[in-house]
Amino acid sequence: MAAVSETIVREYFELHGFFVRQQRKYVAPSRREDEEVDFFVLNPHQVASDPPLPFVLTSNEVPRIARAVVVVKGWHTESFSSAVLAHAPEIFRFVEPPVFQRAAKMFGGGAPPTKILVVPALPQSDEARAQSIGLLTSKGVDAVIPFHTMLADLIDQIEVNRNYQKSDLLQIIRILKNYDFFKEPQLELFKTRRRKR
User: Angle at the Cα of 19 (from 106 to 31), degrees rounded to 5?
Assistant: First the structure.
């Protein structure tokens, strides 16, 4: 599942014009998979703006990122509640000073890169969501991008009449779109009720 999740993240950033570099394509036997950064992303066409980036990023804010270290947590089974985060300290390994400093050296001088965590979802309730965001920011994470945001943007941007043969993921999305497996979002003002018998 990690390879699929990483492919989604790579394609998403490349779709937005980022250069994406993967730190390693192997897992060293002496190291755990979760210890390092998954991607380094560099935006050659950063859109400058005054307000700071929000913590939960949407596709509209991504072009404002200059460079970032990205860690992918593609569990796809649960939201990142404060309870889940409290019992999984390995999630925050990439923001620890030695790991982050090694990662920041990849970019050379300048401002430190943004620390982005790609998550399956944040809790739905406002209180639980605020607790999760508070815990993530206190540990040093700068921003999160939910997988839903990435997948929705990829689906929206793929054109049915183009051939994406160099990307299996994009080609699968194109085929599914071509056969109407993805429906356009609709506004349901007048929801019809089933008649009772």
Answer: 45
Query: Which SS3 state, helix, strand or coil, does residue 27 take?
Result: coil
Asked if 100 and 127 count as a contact pair (C-beta separation under 8 A), the reply is no
Q: What pTM, to 2 d.p., does this model score?
A: 0.82
In this structure, are residues 96 and 141 in contact, taking their beta carbons and an 8 Å threshold?
no
Structure-token pair, residue 172 = 């699968």
Q: Is the separation of the CB atoms in 22 and 10 below 8 Å?
A: yes
**Pure H helices in the chain:** 2-15, 82-86, 97-105, 126-139, 147-157, 168-178
Amino acid at position 10, single letter: R
pLDDT tens for residues 69-128?
A: 999 987 766 676 777 777 777 777 777 777 777 777 777 767 788 999 999 888 888 998
Q: What is the spatial distance between Cα 63 and Cα 73, in angstroms, rounded to a whole number? A: 22
Q: Give the amino acid at 109.
A: G
